[in-house]
Amino acid sequence: MVPKKEILALMNTLNVEINYFHPGTELAKYVKATAKELTKSDGVALTGLLQQFLNQAPVIKLSDKITFTPTEKKLWDKLFSYNKLENNLWAASY
Q1: How many domains, the chain?
Q2: CA 19 to chain centroid
Q3: pLDDT tens digit string along 12-24?
Q4: Count of other CB atoms within 10 angstroms of residue 62
Q5: Which of 52, 66, 77, 83 is most buried, with most CB under 10 Å away?
Q6: Cβ contacts of 15 within 8 Å, gap of 6 or more
Q7: Is the per-residue pLDDT at 82 higher than 50?
């Protein structure tokens, strides 16, 4: 089970990094909007929104032709490791 505050902390840090190094890109806008929405979400809404992000963000990143810094890559990989949690992610509402 992944605590909500862990997801939010990771997403907010990723938001800061991506918006600093890639301002104005679609990915930066999407990460920022998703981070904001995750803060307001709980339970199934939180996990559904996170799953939607995990599905769409790689496509947006590819479209923007972004190359991550080592820090961004580490944060991105950590966030996407939640995708492997499958059903355990659904408990991320605390």
Answers
A1: 1
A2: 13
A3: 999 999 999 999 9
A4: 10
A5: 66
A6: 31, 32, 35
A7: yes
φ/ψ region of 68 (left if φ > 0, alpha if ψ in -120 to 50, else beta) reads: beta
| Structural domain of 62 | 4-91
One-letter amino acid for residue 28 of the chain: A
Cβ contact 39:8 at 8 Å: yes
How does 77-94 read in b/e, with b if 16+ C-beta sit within 10 Å?
eebeebeeeeeebbebbe
The residue assigned the tokens 């991550």 is 68
Do residues 9 and 43 make contact, with C-beta atoms less than 8 angstroms apart? no
